[in-house]
Amino acid sequence: MTLSSSTDRLASLRADLERRNPAEPEFHQAAREVLESLAPVFAARPEYAQPGLIERICEPERQIIFRVPWQDDRGDVHVNRGFRVEFNSALGPYKGGLRFHPSVNLGVVKFLGFEQIFKNALTGLGIGGGKGGSDFDPRGRSDAEVMRFCQSFMTELHRHIGEHTDVPAGDIGVGGREIGYLFGQYRRITNRWEAGVLTGKGQAWGGSAIRTQATGYGSVLFAAEMLRGRGEDLQGQTAVVSGSGNVAIYTIEMLGRRGAHPLTCSDSEGYVVDEKGIDLELLKQVKEVERARISEYAQRRGASAQYVRGGRVWDVAADLAFPSATQNELHERDALALVRNGVKAVAEGANMPTTPEAVRTLQDAGVAFGPGKAANAGGVAVSALEMRQNAARDSWTPERVEAELTGIMGDIHRICHETAEHYGVPGDYVTGANIAGFERVADAMLAQGLI
Ligand code: NDP
Ligand code: 2IT
Known about the structure:
Layout: H1 3-20, H2 25-44, H3 53-57, E1 62-71, E2 77-88, E3 94-100, H4 106-123, E4 129-134, H5 143-157, E5 166-169, H6 176-190, H7 211-228, E6 238-241, H8 246-257, E7 261-262, E8 264-267, E9 270-274, H9 280-289, H10 294-301, E10 305-309, E11 320-322, H11 332-340, E12 345-347, H12 356-364, E13 368-370, H13 372-375, H14 377-391, H15 398-422, H16 429-447
Parallel strand pairs: 3-4, 3-5, 6-7, 6-11, 11-12, 12-13
Antiparallel strand pairs: 1-2, 2-4, 8-9, 9-10
Helix pairs in contact: 1-2, 2-4, 2-16, 4-14, 4-16, 5-6, 7-8, 7-14, 7-15, 9-10, 11-12, 14-15, 15-16
The structure holds NADPH dihydro-nicotinamide-adenine-dinucleotide phosphate and (2Z)-2-iminopentanedioic acid (2IT).
C-alpha cells in the first residue's frame, strides 16, 4: 500500500467512524489522533492494513449501559447511568478506571477506553483496554451517600467483571474510598475473596504499595526521560501543574523529590500559584483529608500563595507543564502562552488534556511533548503489578514497586522514542506511542484470528 492510499483508507475509516458513532466528539478526537499516526505503518507493513483489523480495533468488544438508582441522606431517590466499555482484550483482561463525574457519557467512556488499549499495550504487562463510570456527581455528597451509590453501581457491574475478565480501578471521582465500597459490595454479592477484581485497593486488603502515587510519579519520570534526551534533568526546573486530585498531588510530590519547583495546582473553579512552591502537606490536608477546595489552600498558606478564580494555570511562566485535570483543558492559546514563556517539556498526566491544535503548536515550537498514553501509564502499570501481587497472594515493598515503575516508564519512553525514529519522525512521542501501542495490539489480534 502506498502512503497516499493508506491515508485515503484511514480518512474514509474516520468518516465512517464519525457517522456510526454520532454525538461522541471526544471519541472522534481520540480515534482521529491514532488513525492519523498510522498511515506510514500501513504503507510499510501491509499485514496491518488488511481489511477488518483497524475496523475491529475501533469497535468495542462490548458496551454495557445500566441504571443506577440510589437514595440520598434525605430519602430522595436519584437515578444515574452506569457504563462499562470493554474495548479490547487481545492482550489481557479489560483494564481501566471508573470515572464518576457529571460530564460522563458514552462518548467520554469510549474515548477513555480507546486510549486505554494503546496505553496498556505500551506497559507490556498483559492488560487489555476498558473504561467505565457514571454521571454521578460525588461533589458535596456524604460518605454514606457515596457508599449507597457505589453499592448500587456494583450490584449491576459485578456480573460483568472478574480477575480474568475485566478489572476496574479509579479515575476522576473514584479513589480509595470508592474502591473500598465497590470491593465490599462485590465480595458480598459473589461470596468470593477475589482481590484481583479491582485495583487501587487499600494496602491492608490486597492493594499495592505506590498505586496511589503511581500516575503522578510516572508522569514526572517520563518528563525526566524526555529531558535526559536533551541533556537536562529536573533539578531546579519550575513546573506548572493543573488539577488538584490524585494525579496532580503525586506529580507535585515527585517534582519536589527530584529537586524541581511545582508552582501551581488548580480545580474547576480556579488555580493557586505559590511562589515558594506548593506546600505538599497542606495540599494533601485540604484535598485528601478535608476534601475541600484549593481556595482553602490559598487562604491558609499565607502571603506566598495567590488564588486566581476562573484563571488559566498555563499563564504562569515555568520550564515544565503537567496538565493533570481533565480532557481538553489546554487549548491553542494556552500552548502559545507556554511557548512564549519558554516551556521545555509537557507531560500529560490527564487523558487527552491537550487539544490537537495545542499539541501541534507545542511540537512545532520544539517542546518535548509526552502524550497521556505514554506519560500517564504509570498508574495502570502499577495496577497490573497489583494484579500480579494478588495472583501470587504476595505483597511487595514500596521500594520494589517504585523500582519496577521507574523501569517501566523508562521502557515506555524508549519504545516511543525508537518507534518515532524508525518511522522518520524523531522526537514525536505522539506518533511513537500510537504506533508502538497499535503494533502490539494488532500483532495479538492477527495471531488470534477473526473474532
Ligand atoms: P481526581 O478526581 O482525583 O481529580 C480530578 C481533578 O481534576 C480535580 O482537581 C478536579 O477539579 C479537576 N477536574 C475534573 N474535571 C474537571 C473539569 N471538567 N474541568 C476542570 N477541572 C476538572 O482525578 P485524577 O487525579 O485521578 O484524574 C485526573 C486525570 O488523570 C483524568 O484525566 C484521569 O483520566 C487521568 N488519569 C488518572 C489516573 C489515575 O490513576 N487516577 C491514571 C491515568 C490518568 P474539581 O474538584 O473542581 O472537579
Ligand atoms: O486512565 C488510567 O490509566 C486510569 N485511570 C488507571 C486505570 C487502572 O486500571 O489503573
